[in-house]
Amino acid sequence: MMANQPIFILPEGTERYSKRDALRMNITAAKVLKDIVRTTLGPKGMDKMLTDSLGDVIVTNDGATIMREMDITQPAARMLVETAKKQEDIVGDGTTSVVVIAGELLVKAQELLEDGIATSVIVKGYRNAAAKAIEILNNVAMDADDRETLKKVAMTAMTGKGSDYAKDKLADLVVDAALRIAEDGEIDIDNINIQRISGDSVEDSFLAEGIVMDKDPVSKNMPTDVEDAKIALIKYPIELKEINTDAKIDITDPAQFEAFLNNEEEMIKDLVDKVVASGANVLFCQKGIDDMAQHYLNKAGIMAYKRVKKSDMERINKATGAQYVTDIEDLTADKLGSAGHVYVDKIFDHKLTFIEECENPKASSIVLRGSTRYVTEQISRALDDALGVVAATIEDGKVLIGGGACEIDLVKGLRAYGESVSGREQLAILAYANAVEVIPRTLIENAGLDTINLIAELKAAHENSSTTGINVFTGKLVDMEEAGVIEPLRIKTQAIKAASEAAEMILRIDDMIAAKNALN
Ligand code: ADP
Questions:
Q1: Per residue in 162-216, pLDDT tens?
Q2: Is 2.60.220.30 the CATH classification of the domain at 211-362?
Q3: Which residue out of 156, 385, 409, 467 is catalytically annotated?
Q4: DSSP per residue over 222-247, as a string?
Q5: How far is ligand 1, taken at its centre, from the CA of residue 442, in Å?
Q6: ipTM above 0.85, yes or no
Q7: Ligand 1 centroid from CA 320, angstroms
Q8: Residue with the nearest Cα to atom 10 of ligand 1?
């Protein structure tokens, strides 16, 4: 019997890191990610310029976008990115804060570990602190869902995201759009589409009822204004070359050739006849429509669009009730959607199609205009965030004061709670409180101001007023409620929950086993 024979249970080349090594690696990765995104936090945060593998450039300070584009491979850092995505899905904003808080919780945990505190104690302390934090935030939250507050919430979310010069106008659009689609206090923001048009001023952006599409009919001779539209959504090419791509034809005399052409024409005519027979007068086709088909569609007075984007097809489906038809043989009257008015209008030098009075009356579009593609894309991301926070405020009717104000309340409340808990868990709760302070600290730091003094002043000011925060533009302490820096409660509670869960998940990992080269 060979006593010291090693036993391999994992394939050769598998990397394994256990206990402290695994934790150290993961915490370091989370810290790196936190340090990357933290410089973008708040109105004075800086932008990141990202280039993807195709060379497309994005300039943004939106945490979710940065992390999405960064192509992160380290598993713990990827978990944080997922957490930020979840935050984006649930509240639509607060993504940078989540990663910054989670990263800071892990840095503080590392210090505790080095002082000999067991992981289980830290996890328990963090969990209790997170529950307390939610309780404190709920206690300091204020009731509000009036139009004025909603506008402030929208403007706060847009601050520092490249849209500040037109914030007032854009916030009005967002609030109008959200109030328009609200139903019994619920909002489905998927009903609002942002249609970007570059080459004009942001000030000329507007809210439209129904769907707006950056496209016009396939032929100039088609109708451009249809009342009582019956809409067909076809994912089937109305052209011959796509139907018979591998057909082989032997033609031996000119008569045969003519017969073949006539036959082709008949086939196209048949396809168009199917559309006509269904009763459709507006046709959106995701594939091509060839010249001959256009001719027959024209003759039938059908307004037709070719190569419609998948996202537009989806919106039309949702708004008008039109069902997708993948084989034109299946196109019947019951598959058609309806809209009271479909027409083409020229805005700047773009021909746009408006689909109004849809079956789903909640469908709306914000037509966002901006000087260049970069500008419209950046503002569009800010609008997305603003829509998310306005929707959350309408749904919950609860807001908090931003600019570091509610975080200082949180730090104070958590410290008091920590003092009331005995044993080593107290250290974990106090560490949690210190970690939350990272938000006001970073806002101040990013503004190039004196962190130590201002944090001390802020804490002192909170002895009397819990709405005091930091005006990052002047470096002065001001009443943030008066300054209109207001955020939905849900952003902060979700950020606390998500950051705590992510930190706990990473702290619990004591073994990392990765297939060959997976960690490189
Ligand atoms: P996130 O992705 O986490 O939402 P942001 O870059 O949008 O990150 O920054 C949000 C933070 O900026 C919040 O803590 C908010 O209170 C703060 N903030 C927003 N507007 C102001 C302002 N005018 N003055 C000070 N702080 C502000």
A1: 777 888 999 999 999 999 888 888 888 888 999 998 887 888 899 999 999 999 9
A2: no
A3: 385
A4: S-SEEEEEEEEEE-S-BSHHHHSTT-
A5: 10
A6: yes
A7: 38
A8: 42
